[in-house]
Write a structure and sequence with these properties.
The chain is α+β, with helices and mostly antiparallel strands. It contains 17 helices and 19 strands. It has helices at 6-19, 46-57, 75-81, 83-87, 105-117, 128-140, 155-164, 187-196, 217-226, 263-266, 285-295, 302-338, 374-385, 407-424, 448-453, 491-502, 534-545; strands at 121-125, 146-150, 167-171, 175-176, 181-182, 202-206, 213-214, 230-234, 258-261, 274-278, 343-345, 358-359, 363-368, 391-392, 396-400, 455-460, 474-476, 506-508, 517-523. Helix 2 crosses helix 12 (302-338) and helix 8 runs parallel beside helix 9. The longest helix is centred in the middle third of the chain and has 37 residues, at 302-338. The protein binds pyridoxal-5'-phosphate (PLP).
């Protein structure tokens, strides 16, 4: 794939975005064609090549890192990893450029990435999409400004809210009851939130979700731009979009202003290596760069940076061919799994309803309708069959299929699931299904920043209903914060969290790792007092104390 097609598709999306011609005017962005020409420069990896050249020059190191090209490192560790990793673990040197002030090879590597991913400018990240999300918020919103956010965002978005002091306008994701997950938000919800909150600075979207469901990005971008808001996209799980016509379109091709992608999660880059793509003039570039400099290490890893450079090259040159095979493997596996009693996998046929506009078919989301939980299935696959899924929840197990997987591995997966089905056949024990509580925006009392800057104390989870939460409570997986700092803790939430712990899951974000106690706001910071909605709090407490079913 090359992004020679992308600038055209961007122009088209933006044109519709500005024209005010109504949502119906938005057409699907142009898809990448297999016959697109690959610009010869895309076959180069300037940073990787500079690192190789530097290592070959054999210079003695009188600089950081302290292991001095690996000579000073613990020998068994070096033997295990190989000496090259340490030789390539360089620091800011003229020959290999600087991430924060790129002038030569990093600048060129980022330019090639921008061309490939359809951005005006691309920034390499060494602290994952987590830092990408924080920087997007830093660049787009300031203290007190409002930003529309789906309530099921990754925790790093809450970190961005704490950092900036922006006011989130949460949009509730639909609960997809038959799959036991939160779905993606719809453009209509964004439109409604924008109408109710005139002057919002930005709209943030997670697309795709961890489980692979997307929303209509082109329409959301158009709706946001028409309201004068920038569109930020957490595309952590979608860096491969845009490289194959069977996949959903990339957010950049749909006209988004800022997009963060975890190159390491799906493509061939190393863990922590992500990219942030910028397009258009809605985002203050200087502020964006400042955020990247403030939030990222001043000693970025050159091994990670080089892995981004080669991941881009690989996709630019061979992305479509690699994804062709991945999609074929995943589709065939899904067909075989769907024939096993009690198993159904999410697919394009489940899209076009609230929660799923389209689906990334490189993910296998296996729903287990057996008398056991998804957690148990995942454990058995790992321990008995040496198959390691990405994650599990109480009813689903998620597998990510990538270019590094083989047909043989996928056949082993199908065989293992068949054997598990035989083991469970005839068992009558019933699991207690966990009903996901709706993520209601009405629970917000303080902004996340106000909640974490206030005075907090710890109470047993069982006594927490009716209190304002001072931490992020995210049942893991999938890591969606069920309660954000500044929100009221409901009885329903307490029940759900207790159920997750009983089913073998964990709750992340709590200071108390056992999950038995929770930090609540004892006193909000003085700056927040004027904003606390005491009426809402009172109504909530009355509701909580009302007899079962009698709450008004
Ligand atoms: C939707 C989403 N956004 C952002 C992140 C953070 O990405 P990273 O691990 O690259 O920091 C994750 C991580 O799982 C995620 O699922």
């Amino acid at each position: 794939m090359t992004r020679r097609s992308s600038p055209r598709s961007r122009t088209r999306s933006r044109k519709y975005g500005r024209s005010g011609g109504g949502e119906a005017a938005v057409t699907a962005p142009k898809r990448v064609s297999a016959t697109d020409q690959i610009p010869p420069e895309q076959r180069k990896a300037p940073l990787f090549e500079a690192i190789v050249k530097y290592v070959r020059s054999g210079k003695a190191s009188f600089h950081t890192p302290g292991h001095k090209h690996g000579r000073g490192v613990y020998a068994p560790f070096r033997r295990f990893l190989g000496r090259r990793v340490f030789q390539a673990d360089l620091t800011l040197l003229e020959e290999v450029d600087s991430l924060h002030e790129p002038r030569s090879v990093i600048r060129e590597a980022q330019r090639l990435a921008a061309q490939t991913f359809g951005a005006d400018e691309t920034f390499f990240l060494v602290n994952g999409t987590s830092v990408g999300n924080q920087t997007m918020l830093w660049a787009a919103v300031r203290e007190g400004e409002r930003i529309i956010i789906p309530r099921n965002v990754h925790r790093s978005v809450f970190a961005g809210l704490m950092l900036t002091g922006a006011r989130p306008v949460y949009v509730s994701p639909p609960v997809m009851e038959d799959w036991g997950i939160y779905g993606n938000i719809a453009p209509e919800q964004v439109l409604e939130a924008l109408r109710a909150n005139q002057g919002c600075q930005a709209v943030m979207v997670t697309c795709p979700l961890y489980y692979g469901q997307t929303t209509d990005m082109a329409r959301i971008t158009a709706v946001a731009h028409r309201a004068g808001a920038a569109c930020l996209v957490d595309e952590a799980h979608g860096p491969h979009f845009g490289f194959h016509e069977a996949l959903p379109p990339s957010a950049m091709s749909c006209g988004a202003d800022l997009v963060a992608q975890s190159t390491h999660k799906v493509l061939g880059a190393m863990t922590q290596s992500s990219m942030l793509h910028l397009a258009g003039a809605r985002i203050d570039r200087a502020r964006l760069k400042m955020g990247l400099q403030l939030l990222q290490s001043t000693s970025p890893s050159y091994v990670l940076l080089a892995s981004l450079d080669v991941a881009r090259l690989q996709m630019a040159v061979s992305g479509r061919r690699l994804l062709d095979r991945v999609i074929s493997m995943a589709r065939e596996t899904v067909r075989a799994l769907n024939r096993i009693p009690g198993i159904r996998c999410f697919g394009p046929e489940h899209c076009g309803r609230p929660g799923a506009f389209a689906f990334d078919e490189t993910r296998i989301m296996l729903h287990v309708d057996w008398p056991v939980s998804g957690f148990e299935v995942a454990h058995r696959l790992r321990d008995e069959y040496r198959l390691q899924p990405e994650m599990a929840d109480s009813t689903n197990v998620l597998f990510l299929i990538g270019q590094g997987n083989s047909w043989g591995q996928l056949k082993r997966l199908v065989r293992a699931v068949r054997r598990l089905e035989r083991d469970y056949r005839g068992l009558t024990a019933h699991r207690t299904p966990l009903h996901l509580p709706p993520l209601e925006p009405t629970r917000v009392v303080l902004t996340p920043r106000e909640a974490v800057l206030g005075r907090a104390r710890r109470v047993p989870l069982s006594d927490a209903a009716g209190e304002v939460c001072a931490e992020l409570l995210s049942p893991y997986p999938p890591g969606v914060p069920l309660v954000a700092p500044g929100e009221l803790i409901t009885k329903e939430v307490v029940g759900y969290l207790s159920g997750v712990l009983r089913a073998g899951g964990r709750v992340n974000g709590q200071a108390d790792m056992s999950g038995r106690s929770v930090r609540i706001v004892e006193a909000a910071p003085a700056s927040a007092a004027r904003d606390v909605d005491f009426d809402k709090m009172l109504a909530f407490v009355l509701h909580q104390n009302a007899p079962e079913g009698g709450a008004q």
